[in-house]
Amino acid sequence: MNSIQFAPERHLELSSLSEAYAALGSDFRMEETFVPFDQLMLTDSLTFQIKEFNRELRPTLTAFTNALKPLGISLPLASRLSRRLLQEVFDELKSKSRVKTFRLFTRQNVLVNIAHDASILVSNSEALNILDNLTTKFSIEKLWIGDRGVRAFLVDPNLELRPSDIDIGDIAQIGLNVESSETGFGWPTAEALIFRLRCRNGAVVSCQWGQAAFEKPRQGLNHREALEQFERRLTALSFDLQKLTYQYKLLYHACLLDTEFEAIWRSLRHIIGSTKIADKMIEIEPDKRCALLQTLKERRKLGRFRPEPTDLSAFEIFNRVTDSQTVRFYPLPVREALERLGGTIIGMVAGRDEAYESREAVQANNKRSQT
User: Fold this and answer.
1) Can you tell me the distance from the alpha carbon of 60 to that of 242, in angstroms, rounded to the nearest whole number?
2) Which positions ≥6 away from 103 have C-beta within 8 Å?
3) 75 near 109, Cβ under 8 Å?
4) Rounded CA separation 96/102 (Å)
């Protein structure tokens, strides 16, 4: 199965809402079809064919994974099977599955996603309408539309972290990271965002400073009312600028603790899928990384669990993880994960149980010890 060519997920970064509306009618015109599971056939080339329509669909990796999931077949297991055996297992297990209907989302002959929820989803045009309504309060700094839906960086021009307040040589603005999907990748959400104007990179920090979620329609709350409620929640979100300034300033002056470095590096390696690229992204030599992790491991064996400071700048690692010139080469889901990791780094420093020396003091001590 290793040679299969999954359809790539597509997205566009756009400069205006009008461009996004136009893309809905051309590059990202989606079709939605409910198909009985027994009508979905796995072909020799590991594409899917719908019996009734005699239509062959090339799946994305996500769609392929979601088709196998109800059968208890993981992607690693599927990769170890021959194509013929995988076909036989697929046909055998789907006849016994409790899932009777699949919801297919397609773009031309690409199977973008497979879902099982029959709920009415928020369309991309509805999501763009909400963004349009919010432009009275926010400016749209970045806007994407793709197979997974709509995503936007909205910033409030009245909420800025000024250089004089945070000791950093550029301005950061506060706003929202808004996401919505009409292809089964999740209900609309909005999370707090820090957006640096000079390098145009963002960090999603919802866990510290708030978020708003779309409430799934139910009895007493129809689809239109749920959309209106979500928009009101976005407008009502407020941020404590003083607290934000304090925590961002902490980040700039903090050194990473060894336990924090371990968590960040392991998360980064998981997101990127490569040890070598993870090291390169945060600009650490493999020998130094190995030494840090080994020292931490040995200390834990001795029952010493108090974190120790490193000479790594928390702000520099944060900046490298979210650097727009680096992350723009990755698929949008990877970029989102990196921006969330950036927010996690801010939360780590702000949530420490005790005070540690600043990075300047740690680096100065290291220099003295080397002379």
Assistant:
1) 44
2) 32, 33, 34, 35, 114, 115, 116, 117, 118, 184
3) no
4) 15
Distance CA 102, CA 150 (A): 23
Predicted TM-score (pTM) of this structure: 0.85
Other CB atoms within 10 Å distance of the CB of residue 261? 23
E strands, the chain, in order: 11-14, 31-36, 40-42, 48-50, 55-59, 101-107, 110-115, 139-146, 149-161, 172-180, 189-196, 201-204, 211-213, 255-257, 309-313
Residues 318 and 348: their CA atoms lie apart, in Å, by: 11
Cα distance between the two ends of the chain: 57
Mind listing the pLDDT tens digit for each residue in 222-250? 999 999 999 999 988 888 778 888 888 88
Q: What is the pLDDT of residues 19-75, one digit of tens each?
A: 999 998 888 889 998 988 888 899 988 899 987 777 889 999 999 999 998 889 998
Which residues of the chain are under the pLDDT cut of 70?
Answer: 1-4, 163-170, 198-199, 206-210, 354-371
Spatial CA neighbour of 319 closest among 159, 203, 206: 203
What's the confidence (pLDDT) of residue 194? 87
**What one-letter code names the amino acid at 233?**
R
Query: Rounded distance, CA 20 to CA 145, Å?
Result: 7
Residue 186 has what DSSP assignment? -
